[in-house]
Each structure stands twice: as structure tokens, then as C-alpha cells.
Design brief:
Rossmann fold; alpha/beta; ten-stranded mixed β-sheet; about 300 residues; binds S-adenosylmethionine; about 45% helix
């Protein structure tokens, strides 16, 4: 869910959502992506004769590096990651958050030049960060020799124009893409409430607002990307990746309630009293453990039509 009213994606919020993302993500698509990345790395190394063997991955809109934490152990072997984000605070947090994650697994982490190197048994994993505004500077992203591109909880922020440019870059590089956790517009509160419909209308309006890229695609992003990539010969597969949040996670529920109400008030200030009432009811339910929420997301795997 990408609905922070001020479009702030603070590290605390990313940490809160990370376990829900991890539980929701489609394992089969991740496994196919990992396989495609490994195969491409082998082919690349056979062509350019490079040693030692390390897969090269780029994560776009990386936040604090959740994709590394989820995928590096699955990819296995040596890896070079480039984490791209425009937020200097999140960029600065990446080495600290990743080193703490490594320490939690008993894996040493050290700074080496501009990289953090994690010496996991299946590693080493060399992780670099770059501050880049993907709206303004997508052209500066170098995908030459990259074995896989990932992005999570990002594509619903972008515009149709930007998606076209992004698609151009992916297709030109003939690189596998794993784009996970893009919202698809479903959001079901249980038990249902009388004002859910009004909230949903305001919420949807906000989702299609400008998140820094022009009018955002919101829930239409995955379909728009699939259509473009297929038209250019990519093979695509999608899977549902829904958040299931129940009474055992009151902090997450409260955060979602607060953000949904704030977003709705921002989108439709005239109905603020109704959204206040909705928020009060949902807060009480979250605190008593009687609230559940399902947020719809989709994962997308896209692979070049032929191996090269
Ligand atoms: C919902 S967060 C997801 C972060 C991370 N992928 C994760 O799963 O934890 C969206 C991310 O998009 C980044 N972002 C938004 N606009 C951007 C832009 N114009 N250029 C680069 N990154 C951007 C934010 O800084 C934030 O890290």
C-alpha cells in the first residue's frame, strides 16, 4: 500500500510492512526469477569470461533494502546489488538496516569502498546504494550487464508515460524483471462498515493522484506494464500477493486505519467528519482485536522471450 499522505516512506513504516510483504509475495514467481537471473549470469560470464561469478541485480525504489533481505538468500552465491532510491534518508539507512539483518543471522558485514559486503555462507553479497530520482533520471540507470531488476511496492506510484520509458529500458537490456506488491485496488475491511464505500471512493481518487511522476497508474499499473511488455515479446506471469492483517497485528491495523482516513480527508476534505467517524470506529475495532483487513496486491514476473 502506497498511501502515505505526504508521500513519506519512512524506515519505520517500511519495517512495519516488511513481514506482511514477505508473507504475501508469491514464492513461485520469485523462484522463477531466481532461476532466470542465475541462468543469465552464467551466460553473461560465458560470453565476457568474467570471474569470479556473481549475479548482478538492481533494485529500484529500494527503500531500506527489503528485496535484498528477501531475495539474496534465495539467489545464493556471490551477488552484486545496486539499490536505487531518491530518498537520502532511506539511502543512508540501508547499510545500517542490512548490517543489522546480517548480524541477526550471524553473518559478518563490513564496509568495502562504497559497498557493504555481507559474508553469508551463501555469499558474499556486495551491496551498493545510489541516490537517483527515477522520475527525472531514469536514463542514468545503467542496466548493461545486469542479470535481474527488482522493484517492490513502487509501480502504483508511477505514470503511464514513465512506465513507457521504464519498459523501453527493460526491453533494451533484455533483463528479467520481478515487480512485487503493486496495489490492485482491493481493500476489504472486516466486519464491513457503513462508511467503507465513501472511504473507498476518496481513497481511490488519492491513489490516482500525482506521486511525483504525474497522474499515477495506481491499481492499473500491473495491467499497463503487462500489456507493454507482452507487446514487445516479453513473457509475463502475475500472481496475487495480498496482505492479510488480523487482530494479532494491532500496530499494523492502526497504521492502516490512520493512513486510510488521512488519505481520504486529503482527497475529499468536505467529507472529513464522515472519515473521522470511520476512523474512530475502526480504531476501536483494531484495539479490541475484532478488525481484519485484506489489501490486494499483485506480483509480476517478466522475462525476455528468448534467452540471450
Ligand atoms: C512503498 S516504498 C517501498 C520501498 C521498498 N521497495 C520496500 O519494499 O520496502 C516506495 C519507495 O519508492 C521510493 N520512491 C518514490 N519516488 C521515487 C523516485 N522518484 N525515485 C526513486 N525512488 C522513489 C521511495 O523513496 C520509497 O523507498
Amino acid at each position: 500500500m502506497n498511501d502515505a499522505p505526504a508521500q513519506g516512506f519512512d524506515a519505520g513504516w517500511l519495517a512495519l510492512r516488511e513481514p506482511f510483504d514477505a508473507a504475501a509475495r508469491d514464492g513461485r514467481l520469485a523462484a522463477c526469477f531466481v532461476e532466470a537471473v542465475a541462468a543469465r549470469a552464467v551466460r553473461r560470464q560465458a560470453t565476457d569470461g568474467s570471474v569470479p561469478q556473481a549475479c548482478r541485480l538492481v533494485d529500484l525504489a529500494a527503500g531500506t533494502g527489503a528485496n535484498v533481505r528477501l531475495l539474496a538468500p534465495r539467489v545464493g552465491g556471490g551477488q552484486d546489488w545496486l539499490l536505487v532510491d531518491h530518498d537520502p534518508v532511506l539511502i543512508a539507512a540501508q547499510p545500517r538496516v542490512l548490517a543489522a539483518w546480517a548480524a541477526g543471522h550471524g553473518w559478518p558485514a563490513r564496509a568495502e569502498g562504497d559497498a557493504l559486503v555481507i559474508d553469508a555462507p551463501a555469499g558474499p553479497w556486495r551491496i551498493r546504494s545510489v541516490a537517483l530520482d527515477l522520475q527525472r533520471s531514469l536514463d542514468r540507470l545503467d542496466l548493461d550487464g545486469i542479470d535481474g531488476v527488482t522493484t517492490t511496492a513502487f509501480l502504483d506510484l508511477v505514470s503511464d508515460d514513465w512506465l513507457e520509458r521504464f519498459c523501453d529500458r527493460i526491453v533494451a537490456a533484455r533483463v528479467p524483471l520481478l515487480a512485487t506488491l503493486t496495489v490492485d485496488g482491493r481493500r476489504d475491511w472486516h466486519p464491513p462498515g457503513p462508511d467503507d464505500g465513501s472511504l473507498a471512493v476518496a481513497f481511490e481518487r488519492h491513489q490516482q493522484g500525482d506521486k511525483g511522476f504525474g497522474p499515477s497508474l495506481g491499481p492499473g499499473a500491473v495491467d499497463a506494464l503487462v500489456a507493454r511488455l507482452q507487446a514487445r515479446g516479453y513473457r509475463t506471469q502475475c500472481a496475487l500477493a495480498d496482505w492479510q492483517v488480523d487482530g494479532a497485528s494491532p500496530a499494523m491495523l492502526l497504521r492502516m486505519v490512520e493512513e486510510c482516513a488521512a488519505v481520504a480527508r486529503e482527497a475529499d476534505p468536505d467529507r472529513a467528519p464522515l472519515f473521522d467517524r470511520w476512523e474512530a470506529l475502526r480504531r476501536a475495532q483494531a484495539q479490541s482485536g475484532s478488525l481484519r483487513l485484506c489489501v490486494g496486491h499483485r506480483d509480476l514476473l517478466a522475462l525476455p522471450a528468448r534467452d540471450d
